[in-house]
Amino acid sequence: MQAAEDIWATIEEINANGGVDNQAVQPTTPPGVSACSTGSAKSSGGCGCS
């Protein structure tokens, strides 16, 4: 139970300090560009991309 309380306290602290922007935790790509189909990447379809 202590672990859950520690995590919750951390989340509350982050939120109290303004939270986070999604771009800070998740890479973004320009409009129209797929995250898993860049020019240098070859996908096997494992991520649902072709």
Q: H/E order of the elements?
A: HH
Per DSSP E runs of 2 or more residues, the count of β-strands stands at 0
Hey, roughly how much beta strand do the residues contain? under 5%
Radius of gyration: 17 Å
What are the SSEs and their pairings?
Layout: H1 2-16, H2 22-25
What is this structure, in a nutshell?
The model has no long low-confidence stretch (mean pLDDT 78). 38% of the residues lie in helices and 0% in strands. By secondary structure, the protein is an all-alpha fold.
Please explain how this structure is put together.
- This protein is an all-alpha fold and 50 residues long.
- It contains two helices and no strands.
- The radius of gyration is 17 Å and the shape is elongated.
- The mean pLDDT is 78.
- Residues 19-50 are annotated as: Disordered.
- This is Putative ATP/GTP-binding protein (Mrp protein homolog).
- Residues 34-44 have a biased composition (Low complexity).
